[in-house]
Specification:
mainly alpha
Length: 174
């Protein structure tokens, strides 16, 4: 390692871990997530530890290790709740709900996604609103009200958010 351990370096490792997971370079993604966690632990950076744990959860999900992904997301939720950064709390909670959904724990996944949705709407966290609606609708087998989705569809104009809301509506219609 040529660079000193800093918060920024730890953050870069976490971001790259997730990117590597998308590229299916999973072993290296885990190494980067581990390095991020080590740096943030050494620096006593709680928010950074939560970010590293979220990266671990993302890589574990990419490996279809959903139990591990859920455990890492739970740890991330605990870590980030102390920081009062609700956007990061939503991200960690969505990773947990996603791991539960993929593990077949649909009721728990739907419950967490619905909670995130309500909190995200109040906060104005639009990415979390769309992601939580998509996950909530899938986990609940489409059993969400039309109004919940319809209220958000016209507010999102970015392709990812729109796609998540269209997926939520599609599951609702099935």
């Amino acid at each position: 390692e040529r660079y000193p351990a800093t918060v920024e370096l730890g953050d870069v490792y976490a971001a790259h871990a997730v990117t590597l997971a998308y590229r299916r370079q999973l072993r290296q993604g885990l190494q980067y997530a581990q390095r991020s966690l080590e740096i943030h632990q050494r620096l006593g950076n709680t928010a950074g530890c939560a970010s590293a744990l979220c990266a671990f959860s993302s890589v574990s999900t990419a490996q279809a290790q959903f139990s591990e992904a859920g455990q890492q997301a739970r740890e991330a939720v605990r870590a980030v709740q102390g920081t009062r950064n609700q956007w990061e709390v939503h991200q960690a909670q969505l990773l947990l709900a996603d791991a539960l959904y993929r593990s077949g724990e649909l009721l728990n996944a739907a419950e967490i996604a619905a909670q995130v949705n309500r909190a995200a709407v109040q906060l104005g966290d639009q990415p979390a609103v769309a992601a939580s609606l998509s996950l909530w609708s899938r986990a609940a087998n489409g059993r969400i009200t039309r109004e919940v989705v319809a209220q958000q569809v016209d507010r999102r104009h970015d392709p990812v958010g729109r796609a998540q809301l269209i997926l939520a509506e599609s599951c609702r219609l099935l």
